[in-house]
Structure formats: C-alpha cells, structure tokens
Amino acid sequence: MLICFLYVYNVILTLLFLLCLGFPPSMAACPPSCLCASDIISCSGCNLSVVPFDLPGYATRLDLSHNRLTALHVGWISQPLQRLVTLILGKNFIRSIDVNTFNDLYNLQRLYLSTNRLSVFPLVIYEEPEGPLNLTFLDLSYNRLTKVPVQSLLSLTRQRGIYLQENPLVCDCALLALLEYWMWKQYPPLLDFRGDYPCKKGAESGWLRVPCPGLTLPAQEGLVVFWVTPTTVLNSSNSDLSAPAFNCSCSIVLRSGD
C-alpha cells in the first residue's frame, strides 16, 4: 500500500511540474520505444520503419537516428512539433523527402540527415513557405549526392552551414568554383572537412572542358568571374587572364555581395 501511495504521489508531482513548465498532461506521455528526459526525446536504435504516432509535442530535440526510415512524407509526424530545435535523422535509409514535409517546424535550427541514401539535394527544405525558416545547420554528409544546386547554395550558405562531405560529387566547373569560393570565404563546413570531398575529374587530362554559353568579357561591373581548373582559381578582378599557367575552361558568376 505504501509503495502504491508513493507511486501515485510521484506521478502527481511530475504532472504538477510539467504544468508549471507549460506542458499539458496530455502531451507528457513518452512512446514505449523511446526515452524521454525533460524536452529531449530519443527513439534511436529502435528498428523503426515509421515514426511513433504519439511523440510528445513539447520536444525541443528529437533523435530518430539508427532506424529503418526510408522516406519522409507529408504527415510523417502525427502532430506539429513547434518547439523542436534539433532533429536527428542520421543513419537511416531515407531516399526521398516530399515537399511540405517540414511544415510547421518553425523553430527547427539543426537538421541531421547524414548517412542516408539521398541522391537528390533536398532543396524543398528551404522552399517551404511554412517550413523551417530558421534552419542554420544541415548535415547531408555520407549520402549519394552526385550533384548539388550550385546557384542556390551560393545564397543558402551565406548564413547557414550545409555539410556535404563524403558524397560522390562529380566535379564539374560549377562545383569546383563553388568549393573554391567557399575556401575564399573560409566557409567552416568546407574548412573542417576539406579532405573529404572526393571529386571525380571530368577528363583524363585533368582539365575540365565544360562549355560556358553566354559568357562575355570583360566581366560586368559588380561581378566577379572565377576561371576554374581542377586545381586553381583566378579572380579576374585582380589577376592577369592571359597568364599561360591557367586554362579557361568554365566560370561561375557571383554577385560581389555574396
């Protein structure tokens, strides 16, 4: 009888504590396959192929790593997790992410998608009008990306960290220019993993021969043109374009404020 009384007493104290924090009792339950501590929910390593239906809505950190999730569809979470700041989905089997998948995750700042099977850059994450507009960290390392939307990344990475290391990226001229531009800008996601971008050359000679239609010289005022080889980039605004050590194969035009 005493044990039962103490149990009920502890439950009441817990509910009162959650109410003081602003968490309704109906949202306080933890799914059987997960561990919950305060506002941190971990469902890692539970062999899940679907996300638990009854996730607590008060979570600020949700760990769904080391499971068997294969896709993220609209409605993959049963209720909006409007407090969620960190979402960990690494080491699953995710191949696709639908449009509007992350709607209502207004406060999401860090998204981990490392070690999945994504072959297309999930640009939809940034295009959702009601999506995670505060997202500042995206980990896409160890996926199956061969191409990335270079022009979009130029603007997305100004104030955001996007990690792309250990993907089978094909180094066309646009990607090489992007990587060199990031080096010039001292972009931390590239600096931290500079040796983990195993690019594939576009020609046996080591020179990339990619046509650049519409390119005119001299460079327009207010623009910077980068002339790219697999190993070198010349900034046309302060270098001699006729230098014999460089072969103009392609370029990428960046606004001077980027």
UniProtKB/TrEMBL annotation:
InterPro entries: Leu-rich_rpt (IPR001611), Leu-rich_rpt_typical-subtyp (IPR003591), LRR_dom_sf (IPR032675), LRR_TM_domain-containing (IPR050541), LRRNT (IPR000372). This is LRRNT domain-containing protein. It comes from the Eukaryota. SMART domains: LRR_TYP (SM00369), LRRNT (SM00013). Residues 1-28 form the signal peptide. Keywords: Leucine-rich repeat, Repeat, Signal. GO terms for cellular component: plasma membrane. It holds the Pfam family LRR_1. Residues 29-61 form the LRRNT domain. SUPFAM superfamilies: L domain-like (SSF52058).
